[in-house]
User: What shape does this take?
Amino acid sequence: MKNYLIRRLIQTLPVLLGITIIVFTLANAAPGNPTSNMMDPTMTAAERARILERFGMNQSVTVRYVNWLREIVFHRNLGHSTTFIVPVAQVIGAHMWNTFYLSAVALAISLLIGIPAGVISATKQYSIRDGGLTIFSLIGISMPSFFFALLLIKWFAIDRQILPMAGMSQPGMIDIGGWEYIKNVMLHTVLPAIVLGLGSTAGFMRYTRSSMLEVIRQDYIRTARAKGLGERIVIYKHALRNAMIPIITLLGFWIPGLFSGAFIVESIFAWPGMGTIGLRAISDRDYSLLMGVSFFLSFLTLLGNLTADILYGFADPRIKYD
Assistant: This one.
């Protein structure tokens, strides 16, 4: 396992390098630059040149990329945000855990509902229950997250006023602290977590159903039943474990997918997370912050794939790494 992890970590380095080159090139290909909002129409050419020089925008794209990469490798510096006027690492650190919390709740909802629903749908194939769960999964996959978010806001925040509309907590609650603050955050989490977890729940359910239908037709499942084992033991101890490989693969991709999907959800619910600062970095042409967010999401994608590869061995003991 140790040698495998070392090899995988080494393989991620050129992948990360390629991702940074592509993202940096695309970001700089967009019209304008981070200093566009600082330019006054009455400025002289010399004043404009000084602003460009101050932020290094008078250099070529290649030179700026090399300087940015050197700062990351040797100084662990992601640059300085022109929007928040603080280091990029500080901006990401202040918003990262909010998105982690929201994504963790959404993922828990997806796993706790999607996998059992998929098992029930597979074991009750062609029944009314299977048909209802299939319809639910198709709705969850096809419904746009922004539309579902607006519906929930209208139903529960505007019409019935039982859940807050936006934000992570009410103003001033963080100063109160304690259990009251925790309850307030939990109430604000309900709607965005449901919206973010809906597509994941439907996806996990469909993958679990398909994988379980394939596994329960295998000879060893018939043998387990012939030995007199209870149906619950056969399904959840033998069949589900062997059906977990495709689900683990989906999980590895869905972890970073929750963060990228949070861009839309967080903007609708005004959630102070990575999605909010990512969209602001795009609108303000804050290249350093945009590159920092992209680098963070790329790292999560690679980490999710590595986590899935490791979990394969726990789901199937036949898989060896050394």
Notes: Residues 200 and 285 are 31 Å apart (CA to CA).
